[in-house]
Write a structure and sequence with these properties.
Elements: E1 3-7, E2 10-12, E3 18-25, E4 34-39, E5 46-51, E6 58-60, E7 68-73, E8 78-83, E9 92-98, E10 110-114
Parallel strand pairs: 2-10
Antiparallel strand pairs: 1-3, 3-8, 4-5, 4-9, 5-6, 7-8, 9-10
């Protein structure tokens, strides 16, 4: 059974930083491209960033490019999203999943709130 456990969110001031973690179970991280999504209140879930199976290739949506970084730690079966220079519009629940058309059940996500 594939599961995702996201953590690391919280309340941060504009311009601040956070590192989100996604511990995966039931899959081999090196066999999957992975992604982070986010969903703000009243909005649809959107794809934020993706990373290839090897971890060498990453993609970011334009609104976060240059501010976010994405990495995999294979030994810990963990996906990270390093977020810097956060803006209020980054506030959302962040989720991880495999990257592709067939997703696994979503985890509970982790709430990120950017506010002064």
């Amino acid at each position: 059974q594939v599961q995702f456990e996201e953590s690391g969110g919280g309340l941060v001031q504009p311009g601040g930083s956070l590192r989100l973690s996604c511990v995966t179970s039931g899959l081999v991280l090196s066999n999957y491209a992975m992604a982070w999504h986010r969903q703000a209140p009243g909005k649809e879930r959107e794809l934020v960033a993706s990373i290839s199976t090897s971890g060498r290739t990453v993609w970011f949506t334009e609104s976060v490019r240059g501010r976010f970084a994405l990495s995999k730690e294979f030994a810990k079966s963990t996906l990270y999203l390093q977020m810097a220079r956060l803006k209020p519009e980054d506030s959302a629940v962040y989720y991880c999943n495999v990257h592709g058309s067939e997703l696994y059940p979503w985890g509970q996500g982790t709430q990120v709130t950017v506010s002064s």
